[in-house]
């Protein structure tokens, strides 16, 4: 089968080539992939910074995918051939204390699809059936693949933030996670949701946020706090969700949040952040973290997208699978916000 593979432990070294066909093992189903999306972690795997030395090499990339059931392995009985499905990104053990209390996203034995085990940028992927969700009939495969980052966003807002009706909310980062976090905050009844980004976001991402109904601040052109005040009339934010993955964003979040407010860290940070915690303690600022998603968040994502309450179509640029390496280059160049590869 044809697949996109990270072949060597160095920048680049991502190729499209034939690999042995996937086969479902005990309790797994075989999915014929129709769409696979490129995530920020796939771009990091392409660039191969030091934080990604944990990867299995070689590995088929991709943890955002959707398709149809092709076959079932021994003991897999939940799905029928031809059903429309998508899969979760984290492979959890189901036995550790976190799994047993429903926190499968932070399983003690977690394996990430597309980094630790072969992923979805291939014609087929074999997946444990307990990680698979049915896709509503009115949802395209492209949208279903992007339900994965939406689930990450909903876990951040619904499970790990202080967004409540009437809140003034700041979202840092105008990528897919940031823009779906903003939509989730709006669904919670936030009175104001402001999306901030840098000059690199000014050409496409911030204008897209505005088209989706969110006021924006370009922090390279305007002071963050002053911009937030002018857009909301509030002196500070009740809740800040930091989705940019920038260490500077953590410092800015603590500068913008009100006393007693909450900062939720959603991004994955490649650098240390120098933080003075004296003011954090004196102001009783609550810092939360949020990582990937659980079963309920995937179901929330699929339901809300299918119901038209969360938009992902404007975020997507579709590429034929054989143009997958160009899609990676466009993602790295920020020419495409969410490249989605179409296989079938």
Descriptive key words:
344 residues, alpha/beta, Quinone Oxidoreductase, Chain A, domain 1, Rossmann fold, 2 domains, 7-stranded mixed β-sheet, 6-stranded parallel β-sheet, 10 helices, 26% strand, globular
- The figure for the number of domains is 2
CATH class of the largest domain: Alpha Beta
Query: Which stretches are poorly predicted, pLDDT < 50 over at least 5 residues?
Result: none
The backbone outline, from C-alpha atoms, is globular
Report the end-to-end length measured between terminal Cα atoms: 13 Å
What CATH architecture of the largest domain would you give?
Alpha-Beta Complex
Q: How would you characterize the largest beta sheet?
A: 7 strands, mixed
The overall average pLDDT, rounded, is 96
How many strand units? 18
Task: Briefly note the CATH topology name of the largest domain.
Answer: Quinone Oxidoreductase, Chain A, domain 1
- SSE arrangement, N to C: EEEHEEEEHEEEHEHEHEHEHEHEHEHE
Helix-strand category: alpha/beta
Specify the helix fraction band. 25-40%
Strand-residue fraction? 25-35%
Number of helical regions: 10
- CATH H level, superfamily name of the largest domain: Medium-chain alcohol dehydrogenases, catalytic domain
Rg estimate, integer Å = 20 Å
Overview of the molecule:
This protein is α/β, with parallel strands linked by helices. The protein folds into 2 domains: 2-150 and 293-342, Medium-chain alcohol dehydrogenases, catalytic domain (Quinone Oxidoreductase, Chain A, domain 1, Alpha-Beta Complex), CATH 3.90.180.10; 162-289, NAD(P)-binding Rossmann-like Domain (Rossmann fold, 3-Layer(aba) Sandwich). It contains 10 helices and 18 strands. It has helices at 40-47, 97-100, 141-160, 176-187, 205-211, 224-232, 247-256, 277-282, 295-306, 324-332; strands at 2-6, 14-18, 28-37, 59-60, 64-72, 84-87, 90-91, 111-112, 124-128, 132-134, 168-172, 192-197, 216-218, 237-242, 257-265, 286-289, 316-320, 338-342. Strands 3, 5, 6, 9, 10, 17 and 18 form a 7-stranded mixed β-sheet that branches. Helix 3 crosses helix 4 (176-187). The two termini are 13 Å apart.
């Amino acid at each position: 089968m044809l697949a996109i593979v990270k072949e060597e432990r160095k920048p680049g070294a991502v190729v499209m080539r034939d690999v042995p066909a996937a086969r479902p093992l005990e309790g797994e189903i075989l999915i014929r992939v129709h769409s696979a999306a490129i995530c920020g972690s796939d771009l990091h795997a392409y660039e191969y910074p030091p934080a990604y030395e944990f990867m299995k090499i070689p590995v088929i990339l991709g943890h955002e995918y959707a398709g149809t059931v092709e076959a079932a392995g021994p003991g897999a009985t939940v799905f029928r051939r031809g059903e429309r499905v998508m899969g979760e990104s984290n492979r959890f053990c189901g036995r550790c204390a976190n799994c047993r209390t429903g926190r499968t996203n932070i399983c003690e034995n977690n394996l990430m699809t597309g980094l630790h085990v072969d992923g979805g940028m291939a014609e087929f992927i074999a997946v444990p059936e307990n990680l698979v969700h049915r896709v509503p009939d009115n949802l395209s495969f492209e949208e279903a693949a992007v339900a994965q980052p939406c689930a990450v966003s909903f876990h951040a807002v619904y499970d790990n933030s202080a967004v409540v009706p009437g809140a003034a909310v700041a979202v840092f980062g105008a990528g897919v996670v940031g823009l779906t976090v903003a939509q989730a905050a709006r669904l919670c009844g936030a009175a104001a949701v402001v999306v901030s980004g840098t000059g690199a976001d000014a050409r496409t991402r911030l204008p897209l946020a505005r088209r989706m109904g969110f006021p924006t601040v370009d922090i390279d052109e305007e002071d963050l706090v002053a911009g937030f005040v002018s857009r909301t009339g509030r002196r500070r934010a009740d809740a800040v969700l930091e989705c940019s993955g920038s260490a500077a964003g953590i410092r800015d979040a603590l500068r913008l949040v009100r006393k007693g407010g909450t900062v939720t860290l959603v991004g994955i940070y490649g650098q240390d952040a120098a933080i003075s915690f004296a003011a954090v303690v004196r102001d009783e600022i609550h810092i939360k973290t949020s990582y990937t998603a659980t079963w309920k968040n995937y179901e929330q994502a699929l339901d809300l997208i299918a119901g038209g309450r969360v938009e992902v179509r404007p975020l997507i640029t579709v590429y034929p699978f054989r143009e997958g390496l160009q899609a990676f280059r466009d993602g790295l160049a920020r020419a495409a916000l969410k490249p989605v590869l179409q296989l079938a």
